[in-house]
Amino acid sequence: MQETTLGRTDSSTGRRSGLIPTRMQALVKRAPAPGAELQEVDVPEIGPKDVLIKVLAASICGTDLHLYGWDEWAQGRVHPPLVFGHEFAGEVVAVGTHVVRTPIGAYVAAESHISCGDCYECRHGLQHICRDVRIIGVDRPGAFAQFIAIPEQNVWPTDRRFPPRIATIQEPMGNAVHTALTTPLAGANVVIFGAGPIGLFAVPIARASGAKKVITVEPSQYRLDLAQRLGSNVVVNPLQENVQHRVLDETEGEGADVVLEMSGNATAIAQGLQVLRSGGHISLLGIPSGPVSLDLADGVIFKGATVQGISGRRVFGTWYQTRGFLDSGMDLSPVITHEMPLSDFHTAFELVRNGQSGKVVMYPNGMPE
Amino acid sequence: MQETTLGRTDSSTGRRSGLIPTRMQALVKRAPAPGAELQEVDVPEIGPKDVLIKVLAASICGTDLHLYGWDEWAQGRVHPPLVFGHEFAGEVVAVGTHVVRTPIGAYVAAESHISCGDCYECRHGLQHICRDVRIIGVDRPGAFAQFIAIPEQNVWPTDRRFPPRIATIQEPMGNAVHTALTTPLAGANVVIFGAGPIGLFAVPIARASGAKKVITVEPSQYRLDLAQRLGSNVVVNPLQENVQHRVLDETEGEGADVVLEMSGNATAIAQGLQVLRSGGHISLLGIPSGPVSLDLADGVIFKGATVQGISGRRVFGTWYQTRGFLDSGMDLSPVITHEMPLSDFHTAFELVRNGQSGKVVMYPNGMPE
Amino acid sequence: MQETTLGRTDSSTGRRSGLIPTRMQALVKRAPAPGAELQEVDVPEIGPKDVLIKVLAASICGTDLHLYGWDEWAQGRVHPPLVFGHEFAGEVVAVGTHVVRTPIGAYVAAESHISCGDCYECRHGLQHICRDVRIIGVDRPGAFAQFIAIPEQNVWPTDRRFPPRIATIQEPMGNAVHTALTTPLAGANVVIFGAGPIGLFAVPIARASGAKKVITVEPSQYRLDLAQRLGSNVVVNPLQENVQHRVLDETEGEGADVVLEMSGNATAIAQGLQVLRSGGHISLLGIPSGPVSLDLADGVIFKGATVQGISGRRVFGTWYQTRGFLDSGMDLSPVITHEMPLSDFHTAFELVRNGQSGKVVMYPNGMPE
Amino acid sequence: MQETTLGRTDSSTGRRSGLIPTRMQALVKRAPAPGAELQEVDVPEIGPKDVLIKVLAASICGTDLHLYGWDEWAQGRVHPPLVFGHEFAGEVVAVGTHVVRTPIGAYVAAESHISCGDCYECRHGLQHICRDVRIIGVDRPGAFAQFIAIPEQNVWPTDRRFPPRIATIQEPMGNAVHTALTTPLAGANVVIFGAGPIGLFAVPIARASGAKKVITVEPSQYRLDLAQRLGSNVVVNPLQENVQHRVLDETEGEGADVVLEMSGNATAIAQGLQVLRSGGHISLLGIPSGPVSLDLADGVIFKGATVQGISGRRVFGTWYQTRGFLDSGMDLSPVITHEMPLSDFHTAFELVRNGQSGKVVMYPNGMPE
Predict the structure, then answer these.
(1) pTM (2 decimals)?
(2) Shortest Cα distance from C55 to chain B (angstroms)?
(3) What are the Cα distances from residue B260, in Å, to B193, B216, B336?
(4) Which of A153, A154, A214, D88 could pair covalently with D58 via S-S, beta carbons 3.0-4.6 A apart?
């Protein structure tokens, strides 16, 4: 790849670091069909309020799998060709003219939701549910590439003592933090449904937030083992035992104070309502693929239960909390089960698809030493 | 009816007021079948912590209609013979030996849920969702009678300037207060689904709590007219227009900040989620008769919405708030559309059944002068 | 005054409406001493994200009086020469190149706090307590002038059915809304200390938010009369009666559920803690001029009371709530006791100083027809 | 001491365990003067709703020291002769006729506040701030004795795997839990002022509740060492360094998100407000001995800070949370620095007085084996 000066900031006053290539490797969803391709494309241009980031690590989210597999949701939302991916960390190599607080060379992760700033929700400090949100790697070019351009407002400065593999998972960890901290957990019996990466993150987060007992429900033994390794006090395989009975047994008959639904599975959601005690709280993060039939009378109304929908994470309240957990020594390494160069994307997506993995991290600019 | 001294308190130190009959008229569900009968039965005995109340007014709740009609729920819960009814007001005429703060002659209404005091919820101050709750007129003898015995802990002293017809509706009004005040309403666009008595109560309560605009959705024109009379800024008949479009029109495209679901109707619940803005709050009070199919992804999760199940009312936090609204002059008279002696119960239940009514009040001890 | 095209936006792509003068009349604090002068000065220039507003009304805040009188606080904060004033409404007449949602001709009010957007608080959606806040008319040129330039992010579009005199008081009304809505008021006994304009605004706001009873404590009879006219159920002159006794009398011995402290007077703050019931909430908006000695043991700790400091208003959550109250018909006209051209500023400040006034509104571009 | 059957329950149907003495050893404040005496007194009688408990351990609270030393507060509140002490654990040996859920032989601790059940606060589920509260060992006979009688409603069943020394400290630990959990701590920088036993308890509680960093401020080196041993990330001696500077240094300039004031010291309270960031939360548990002069303007109002008074603990919400922390393995043993028989009370109180101790536990019925 030919190195050259960038020459692409919109103004002579924009700053840039040394040599930046004009072309880069990127994983591109080329056509409205399953799959993706590694291609050479232009390094993205930056606007006056944008920064250009050299991607040091990018991790795969369930959303990326939807996109890769080109399911119904992807077909309705995404317009190929598109570089996708939205969990990443890297180094700032160029900044636009109106960038004010991000220096060249900054080590950063990024909030993936670009909020409009003008809608009712944004004007209430609820940017995470902005009604005109645009998502990196979904609605605009993403992070499975050597470089990415994003607005400065989405940059999250990160301490260099956290390597790129940890820095990149701050974004999905933020989903878990936001979900877990919606309601107080101190002294609470917490049941987590689904031990994909976000569910796995939630285990140590709930433990560190004072949960009395964390019970993880998940049909994959591989993931249950990870949950246990991350500190889940109890793990339950719903294919092998009655979830409701087990939760009652483990909670002296009280039931769950808090349920964190991370699976999107309709049966799990129904079970979540069943195991909840009266006055309990259930947060829904996992996205069901269709309508879900619920016993609202017994599951929600008579119980006086609270059902909280969770989308994204607080910008940047959740990021500060996430940083707090990392700073205080929380070790999330066990969740990262696989790492590989971006060129092995085929293997990476296969691992995510078959569930024999935690978080999979890819390196667009070469493996770390 | 023969008058005699009561002689029924469990101890010679219990106090009683003058002459109390031994027998009384009561509406009795005699057999596990539709209907009920007016009968002469024993005036109830009182235990050491109970009070005996002469019922000056008793109003009909939807629950009573289930019981009267002997539907599936009633068949599973109620054991005839039973005097039913749980909304009432009256005068204390006898008190048990351990009654400490309720004098003979006190004018009172009553909380209908008798909580156990020992369960996890009770020990958290959440008696309204006690897991061993017993309901007056459902699990023990009720208020469609000349006298009723209840524990002193359920008594709510009421100012005599509120006549029995108003005093008795404090209980269902409490449902509306509890539902409405679960989330701040000041400056909010509030949509109420269902204009039965509780939905109707909710209209002035929401207005008095600072709602910017109250929109009532209800298929009965009779009830929509009542809603308007009670101050609903907008009324919508879902049989005649598109609810979602109308709500968006009325809210400058923002949608509802708060939805109060008082109907239990599955379509209404689905519409409630549709009209809710991102970050909005929906309280569910109406009890659906079966499972409800919901679009949790778009209706709850992506919106970051809060769904709050509502059961009963705070004991006695809600009662204080209810008193506050009454004290500050809230006029709920329009909700009370019919009044009659208990002996006209047939007519009364027919009015409730056909929906051409608001709240129906019955008088077991004669019509007020 | 000579009319000319503005020619002052920083870029040829900024938009402007017809003829804008180059010079204007403005009230200028010229020197570090009491008083101010009406002068002709340059119409302010606008940056790329700014708008230029023709000021149709500007109202006087207590802060302006501090500035005018040049007290200790003003001496420590303000650097003359300065055009001051921060409550205003007007019409947008020019916009910078990066202004995206505000059209020329828009009728607007403005948030007076310009937040940095980068500090811990701003990144938590708490711009009202930004640690690097700059205040219009205090830290940069203000609104007692024919034109003012402010960042677009501070603009609040206002409906033209509210005349400039009402539009300008949205800002201080917002203080009252923010103070009053920090805690639920439905069914609550609310005591307001201080019936200056913000305390007066709080009266109908508390009433409209469901307060059971509003009690206003204020030594000026003129202002007590205004409080009564605005709906205060009880008014108490602390010079004439014992505040604590009266509050207990008026609340059946319970005490205040909520205290709104709008006076900044040390005695009032102490009384506020005294009249508060156990578990009550007191919001402090009034700014004491020095340290205040408090009985924390009896007033706060044993009571389990909550003391909430209040600064500014939520941006823009409070503005939406304020709009909601205005839209639903709240009439704040009685608070506006005097209106005059800007040139009568001398009289205006004298009225504010002597307390024989509610809110005083000035018109820099001529009285409305 | 002569053993005999109790024969003291008010009814022949009360139950009792085997032989209970008629007389017992108790620490009695005999006269309105400093000091106390070990005496033989009658074993207390129980009412119909009471239980009699054999005290296996009783610990000393600061309140007991006030009583022992007979300071101004004690003189105004306490009426000798009185058996004092209110932190204890033991075994139920007799129950009144109306006791329904506590069996003979139950191993229990107790809530020390006996609430009236009838006041505004009690009827809102806020028994911890009951306005007619009576405190064990202050307003009625206490626990520095071989036996104590208390209402069944105050009993807290405890698992036998926690020895009496741990069971007895649940009560003061509850103060710390209640104080710490008033506001979310996950990801927060928490500063604790005062490392007496409650402050020391707060250290692991805050850590277990997700605090990013716990900073303890305390002038006694002995106690700072204990704080460090219990997990405080930073310890600060205010006699040796500038508290505000150190806190800012340790928090990257942000200041404290949360302050827990456990000292009651006026200087500490003022420093607590200084180190608090804008929008921060300070809980006040420590009771100042007189009025405290505060800079409300800079410390509370401009910051938009929340000051929360803390009294007692939630009944029984806090007890459940406390149990949760103990169940999940929190080790509070380091706080218990001294244990001795009740007869050594002189030494015990001296240790508490001179500050060279954490929690001191006494054994009225002999040291455990």
Answers:
(1) 0.95
(2) 27
(3) 6, 9, 21
(4) D88
